[in-house]
């Protein structure tokens, strides 16, 4: 998606060799117009799928998924992150390891909001090592629901996320794919 790539090039800040900060339009300040275009693009890419719910993960996924959901005309459910060791029988839970924070956490969705009739689109802001997406897919499987596709705003293809989630055999669409980040320079695929 050209518009998104332009914004990444003009406003993205590379931290080290692996982390991209896009706080000015995606992760802190939110450019709603850009998110509208992102939402339309996801709708176009997944127009062949019968989707009745979008599942994402807090916090940054919520705005992206909510704006996309207006085009799909479906509700959004977001997984909440927890640091505790408790288990909650009223929720589906999975463990996720965050490479940006270098720590593990739990994600939970109430059993009320995911069920076996659901046909889910998973959406997230970044695909790095695939842990967030695999955690979300784990919740979907526990609910007996079915994932129809995975929509990612920015994929970093030099990390192992894609090869891990390709094993799920699902349609994966990334709107911008970064092949390399070297000396602060961003190279798209
Ligand atoms: P993964 O689970 O695929 O390893 O990483 C994806 C999650 O980590 C996303 O939900 C995102 O919040 C965060 N993340 C991974 N890489 C980046 C990055 O380069 N920049 C930002 N802002 N977040 C990232």
Set down the secondary structure blueprint:
Blueprint: H1 2-11, E1 13-15, E2 19-21, H2 23-27, H3 32-45, E3 53-57, H4 60-72, E4 76-82, E5 91-98, E6 103-110, E7 119-127, H5 131-143, E8 146-156, H6 161-166, E9 171-182, E10 185-188
Parallel strand pairs: 3-4, 3-7, 7-8, 8-9
Antiparallel strand pairs: 1-2, 4-6, 5-6, 9-10
Brief account:
It contains six helices and ten strands. The chain has 189 residues and is of the alpha/beta class.
Tell me what you see in this structure.
The protein has 189 residues and is of the alpha/beta class. The protein is built from six helices and ten strands, in the order αββααβαββββαβαββ. The protein is 32% helix and 37% strand. Helix 3 crosses helix 4. The radius of gyration is 16 Å and the shape is globular. The termini are close together. The structure holds guanosine-5'-monophosphate.
Largest sheet properties:
8 strands, mixed
Determine the strand fraction and express it as a percent band: 35-45%
Can you tell me the residue ranges where pLDDT is under 50 for at least 5 consecutive residues?
none
- Structural category is alpha/beta
Helix proportion: 25-40%
Radius of gyration: 16 Å
- State the end-to-end distance: 12 Å
Q: Can you count the helices?
A: 6
Bound molecules: guanosine-5'-monophosphate
Strand order within the widest beta sheet = 5-6-4-3-7-8-9-10
Order of helices and strands: HEEHHEHEEEEHEHEE
Shape field:
globular
Mean pLDDT: 97
Q: How many beta strands in the DSSP annotation?
A: 10
């Amino acid at each position: 998606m050209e518009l998104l790539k332009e914004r990444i090039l003009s406003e993205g800040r590379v931290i080290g060799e692996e982390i991209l900060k896009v706080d000015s339009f995606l992760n802190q300040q939110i450019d709603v117009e850009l998110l509208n275009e992102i939402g339309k693009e996801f709708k176009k890419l997944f127009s062949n799928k019968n989707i009745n719910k979008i599942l994402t993960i807090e916090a940054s996924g919520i705005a992206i998924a909510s704006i996309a959901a207006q085009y799909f005309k479906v509700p959004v459910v977001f997984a909440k992150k927890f640091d505790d060791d408790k288990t909650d029988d009223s929720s589906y839970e999975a463990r996720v390891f965050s490479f940006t924070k270098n720590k593990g956490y739990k994600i939970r969705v109430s059993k009320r909001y995911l069920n076996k009739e659901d046909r889910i689109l998973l959406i997230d802001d970044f695909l790095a090592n695939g842990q967030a997406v695999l955690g979300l897919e784990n919740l979907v499987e526990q609910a007996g629901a079915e994932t129809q596709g995975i929509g990612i705003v920015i994929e970093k293809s030099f990390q192992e996320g894609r090869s891990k989630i390709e094993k799920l055999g699902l349609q994966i669409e990334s709107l911008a794919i970064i092949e390399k980040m070297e000396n602060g320079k961003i190279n798209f695929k």
